[in-house]
Design brief:
Blueprint lengths: L3 E6 L2 E5 L3 E6 L2 E7 L4 E5 L5 H13 L3 E5 L1 H10 L4
Parallel strand pairs: 5-6
Antiparallel strand pairs: 1-2, 2-3, 3-4, 4-5
Amino acid sequence: MSVRLRCVGKEQYELETDRWIFFFSYGVPVGAFDKAGKLKFETDSYFTITTSRHIMKWMERMPGEPGTLKQEKLEAIIMEGENG
């Protein structure tokens, strides 16, 4: 499994694995893209106006059908790794 972290904006990062791209705003995971299923998800939690803007721009940039995940599920997928 390969893992890559990249800065995509001020206080915005993507953590990419073979299957997933996770989006972080201010160090908090708030989005995920499933490369296998071509689905993108945003958290169902609200953080700040700035984080909401970060999420909106990231979701616009990512391909695929949009969806929402509970924050706990998003964090669980990250912890489970490629099997999430």
